[in-house]
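Protocol step 4 of 6.
Sequence for R-spondin-2 (Catharus fuscescens) entered exactly as in the expression construct, tag removed. Do not edit the line below.
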Amino acid sequence: ANYGPNPICKGCLSCSKDNGCIRCQHKLFFFLRREGMRQYGECLHSCPSGYYGLRTPDMNRCSRCGIENCDSCFSRDFCTKCKTGFYLHRGRCFRGCPAGFAALEELMECVEGCEVGQWSEWGTCSRNNKTCGFKWGLETRTRQIVKKPAKDTIPCPTIAESRRCKMAMRHCPGGRRPAKTKDKKKKKKNLMERAQKQHSIFLATDKTSQ
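Step 5 output, structure tokens:
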């Protein structure tokens, strides 16, 4: 091997002062590094970020990953690790996970999330388990979990929600309303009796004065 005096020639089978490595030792990967207008060859044990090692009978090379925002890849079209801020999903990198998948922050990967069904119709408006006797109540709708998430740490979307509603019947038949009517009649009767009593006293007093 011709290493030469230049440290850039380390690991080379052949090397030039201006262009660096031209051929590498067996097992090492040839990487063509570019710095401005200059480029030179290096022989590396592993390829740098954004490249993967391609082994061929002629010479092992570092080839660029074809996936955008990929930090390391298994092949040109399959990423194994994304750049900071991107999530890995099926060999590609995304800012956010696709629908039906959840972000696993510790690994920066998209995994199967919790899948829920369609919302049901809104239920009957009620309050304290009664459908009458109040002006306002609550109605609820629900949905079922169709598929549980791959990881227990991934929460499912809410499967029940409620909203304020107006009662169809404010007064219950045979309930509060008849009781109030009875009280009113009794009160009216008491007033009539009191008025008659006062009138009798007035008449009696008036006769005495005559």
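Step 6, annotate. The chain has a mean pLDDT of 82.
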